[in-house]
Amino acid sequence: SLGGTMAEPKATSTAEPLLLNAVRGVDVERPPVWLMRQAGRYMKAVFLGFLVSYQIICEKYPSFRERSENVDLVVEISLQPWKVFKPDGVILFSDILTPLSGMNIPFDIVKGKGPVIFDPLHTAVDVDQVREFSPEESVPYVGEALKILRKEVDREAALLGFVGAPFTLASYVVEGGSSKHFSKIKRLAFSQPNILHALLQKFTTSMAKYIQYQADCGAQAVQIFDSWATELSPVDFEEFSLPYLKQIVDIVKQTHPNLPLILYASGSGGLLERLPLTGVDVVSLDWTVDMAEGRRRLGPNIAVQGNIDPGVLFGSKDFITNRIKDTVRKAGKVKHILNLGHGIVVGTPEENVAHFFEVAKGLRY
Ligand code: CP3
Q1: Where does the Uroporphyrinogen decarboxylase (URO-D) domain lie (predicted)?
Q2: How distant, in Å, are the alpha carbons of 200, 228, 337 from that of 295?
């Protein structure tokens, strides 16, 4: 039953982390749980005999690129939520834009503004100048950090890597940053599609390589973020996103057939039946889809992740508890990873995050 009784944390005796077993459809005693953006700005200070604060690291290292491109800082920040909440997945602290400088696309992430691409790409010549990504050369700190993290986390949790999906990366580099209407990338898509296709192909090959690199360095599952794919109508998704996602999955499965791949697209309710066509192992749902309906529409062969509204973490503890139980009941006993429907919001009370993990880890099917 889903009584939500608090159980003593059990020493893991299984050879595989809970999250990997759940994805593979092995019987598990509860759903594994982690939270998107579990490392980051909501973490002010948690005292556990030691101080764990992302915000203090930010004061000392104000540049996001420095924090995310220095092995020691990446390891430390990735481990902060692990030390405090013991999630079943530990995600690398990095960004989907991290590969861009290695592809000859200079960028920064500016406080209060978000991602900035200094020279947005618009023409065939711009796209020609994009270099294929070589992770060993361009982001060796990612590989080093993953190797250290894998040792630190050992078998108690799954180490998660991630990449941006081709369309989402293209939207940043064409728009020049975050966007409201996506008019620049749509102008390209709907007037000079060949230029966009050339760019998408470069991101596809590059991100497939990046996933392989992350897996070789210790990532045990990799999440692909296609955050903005749902800005596309379904026919356009079928042209500008789906084939590239499928290609990434095909390339990675050739070398890493057992590496679980998770696909996240926010607001994907209108595309749900199409997402499994990519070949991914897990679809990560946002909260605009009811978990039970999402399950039905995705079919039984695919695992599902999600899908609690990050805003629930601003609610009362009882509300949080009830929403967790409701989501877990609707997801069923197999192939579910409990998570939010998008990243944790800045300002989320840390005690509510702690409560979320406590309840989730105390559940028993
Ligand atoms: O989940 C985790 O804890 C891992 C870390 C992670 C970050 N970015 C760190 C980060 C992950 C998985 C991402 C992915 C990412 N980055 C996505 C896909 C997920 C999604 O939200 O849909 C996207 C679209 C980006 C691009 C990006 N990077 C945005 C929109 C921002 C926010 C800008 C802002 O200032 O609000 C970033 C910066 C960023 N990446 C932050 C963090 C913790 C916040 C800036 C900071 O900490 O200084």
Answers
A1: 32-41, 160-176
A2: 30, 22, 12
Question: What are the sequence ranges of the domains in the chain?
Answer: 18-362
Q: CB of 30 within 8 A of CB of 363?
A: yes
Task: Determine the distance separating the centroid of ligand 1 and the alpha carbon of 364, expressed in angstroms.
Answer: 32
Identify which of 43, 95, 210, 223 to mutate to test ligand 1's pocket (most ligand atoms within 8 A of the CB): 95
Cβ atoms of 166 and 241 closer than 8 Å? yes
E-assigned strands of the chain? 46-47, 51-52, 89-91, 107-110, 114-117, 158-164, 221-225, 261-264, 282-284, 303-308, 336-340
Judge if pTM exceeds 0.90. yes
**Selecting from 1.20.120.80, 3.90.226.10, 3.40.50.720, 3.20.20.210, what CATH number does the domain 18-362 have?**
3.20.20.210
Q: What confidence category does residue 55 fall into, taking pLDDT thresholds of 50, 70 and 90?
A: confident
Does the ipTM exceed 0.85?
yes
Atom of ligand 1 nearest to the CA of 227: 22
Going by CA atoms, what residue is nearest to atom 22 of ligand 1?
227
The CA 332 to ligand 1 mean position distance, Å, reads: 30
- Residue 93 in contact with ligand 1 by CB distance below 6 A: yes
Backbone Cα Rg of the chain: 20
